[in-house]
Structure formats: structure tokens, C-alpha cells
């Protein structure tokens, strides 16, 4: 009897999974290299994605790996075949190489995705003194 019940439960689980939402998030690119950027000058990159699935996709609370990176994202449902975006702004406060992650949870079939920003913060250029008149 236990085997029959286990078999029945397994069939129900697989059947329910077949009816799950089928939204799929497909990013054009999941990482961005800013190369060398000046200290104290925030830089931004927009990651675009397309819903290649059959159901709407809703992004959850998109978060960054530290307070120096601020994400902004499409808040309304992204319908099948439509595009959405996530803009990540990095405030280059500390000199040296950086590698930051933006976590993108969603109701999509492929679940939580991770975007990466990297580069190197260098000293800002000193303003050139005006030559005499």
C-alpha cells in the first residue's frame, strides 16, 4: 500500500510541475566589464532581458552584493516575447579591482539569476590648470 501511495504522490508532483508557469528570462549578457573607471564617478550599465517563455515573468526584489551598487528594474510583469531591464549603478568609491553581483529573483522557470559587474577603480584625473591669458 505504501508503494502505491508513493507512486500516486510522485505522479501528482510530476503533473503539477507540468502546469507550472513557463516564463523564461533570457539575458542578452549577464556580465559587464567597465574596465578602468575613475574614483568617485558612478557608472551604470543596463542589462536587457527577454521573456522567451509562454507566461508573464515578474522580477522579485533585485539586490546587489554591497551598498556601492544600486539596481533599478522593470517592476511590471514582462509578457511573453517582451523585454525588461535591470540598470545597475556602481559608485566607484574605493580604488582597486572590483567584482560585484546583482541577484535577480523571479517567477521564471530558470529562477534566480546573477548578473556581474567588474572593472578597476583608478585615481581620478586631476583637472588641468588653465593656461594664463
Automatic annotation (TrEMBL):
Q: Which InterPro entries match?
A: DUF1573, Ig-like_fold
Q: Which residues form the signal peptide?
A: 1-20
> Which Gene3D superfamilies does its entry note?
Immunoglobulins (2.60.40.10)
Q: Which domain of life is it from?
A: Bacteria
Using the record for this protein, list the coiled-coil segments as residue ranges, or answer none.
none
Do the record's keywords include Phosphoprotein? no
Q: Keyword annotations for this protein?
A: Signal
PANTHER family reported in the protein's UniProt record: LIPOPROTEIN-RELATED, SIGNAL PEPTIDE PROTEIN
Q: What is this protein called?
A: DUF1573 domain-containing protein
Amino acid at each position: 500500500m505504501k508503494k502505491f501511495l508513493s507512486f500516486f504522490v510522485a505522479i501528482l508532483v510530476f503533473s503539477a510541475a507540468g502546469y507550472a508557469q513557463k516564463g523564461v528570462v533570457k539575458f542578452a549578457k549577464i556580465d559587464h566589464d567597465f574596465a578602468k573607471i575613475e574614483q568617485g564617478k558612478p557608472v551604470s550599465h543596463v542589462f536587457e532581458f527577454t521573456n522567451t517563455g509562454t507566461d508573464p515573468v515578474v522580477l522579485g526584489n533585485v539586490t546587489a552584493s554591497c551598498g556601492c551598487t544600486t539596481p533599478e528594474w522593470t517592476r511590471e510583469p514582462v509578457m511573453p516575447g517582451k523585454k525588461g531591464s535591470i540598470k545597475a549603478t556602481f559608485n566607484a568609491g574605493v580604488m582597486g579591482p572590483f567584482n560585484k553581483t546583482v541577484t535577480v529573483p523571479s517567477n521564471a522557470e530558470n529562477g534566480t539569476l546573477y548578473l556581474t559587474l567588474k572593472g578597476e577603480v583608478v585615481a581620478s584625473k586631476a583637472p588641468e590648470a588653465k593656461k594664463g591669458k
